[in-house]
Amino acid sequence: MTTATMYAVVCAGAAACLTVGRDEGLRRARLVLASGGAVRPDTRWPWERWRRPLDRFRREWLCLPAGAFLAVLGESVLPLLAGAVAVPLLGRRLRASEHGRTRDGRAGAVIALCGVAAGELRAGSQPGQALLTAGRATGALGAAEAAVLAAARFGGDVPAELRRASGEPGAEGLAGLAACWLVAVDSGAGLATGIDRLEAALRAEQEQRDSLTAQLAGAWSTVVVLALLPAIGLALGWALGADPLRVLLHSPAGLCCLLVGGLLEAVGLYWATRIVRAGSGRER
After folding, report:
1. pTM for the whole thing?
2. Out of 11, 42, 130, 136, which residue is the most buried by the measure of CB atoms under 10 Å away?
3. What are the two backbone dihedrals, phi and then psi, of residue 44, each rounded to the nearest 5 degrees?
């Protein structure tokens, strides 16, 4: 390796280090100015950062290749059309499940917020500082975190901001925290005691929901089995040496059976899901 090449490699390495350091410094400065607190270093592995584009891929689009495979196997365009129709339906179901998980996570974060705030108050912190510490530690305030923390820091209307933040799914417990804050300010009652009682009530409600979810697990299993029955029937037909797709897709009787069976399957799934959702208290 020549001297010029060695100098070029050293300069390139130095430039890369300076660029990475500059980007990291800019990132830290932006986060410090945005939140007013300390910034943790980004300790994620590189492959976790590269997963972001993959996470954006919607799983419901897998219905299209599945429908295309069945269309080629059965030599008909009907499975491809069915896969295209299933994309928005499955997407809606997946988004509903994702929203449910987000709601449950937010509810757990609100309970943790109450516990941390009560602990900070008993340790001698002021209410505003206790709310600041609990909000940053748990992330229960969501999109309204900046407004609530600003109100707590600069003497704003904290109960109003908490009630506004309670409008997000799963954050309904913040309305109780706003009531405790308002009563403590107006009457001088102990805020830590009220937050403790609120935490106990929210935790009992969460345990009741978890118990109900566990009891409904069998019903959801029935819904899943009902959804898989057509695929199991087709697999049994292939195992017996028949060609069920050709019969269903290329004969008048098969097309009639496919239409009637699809309608009955859709009605059965809707009915069973409606019953389970009504039992879980999440019926819209």
Report:
1. 0.66
2. 130
3. -75, 150
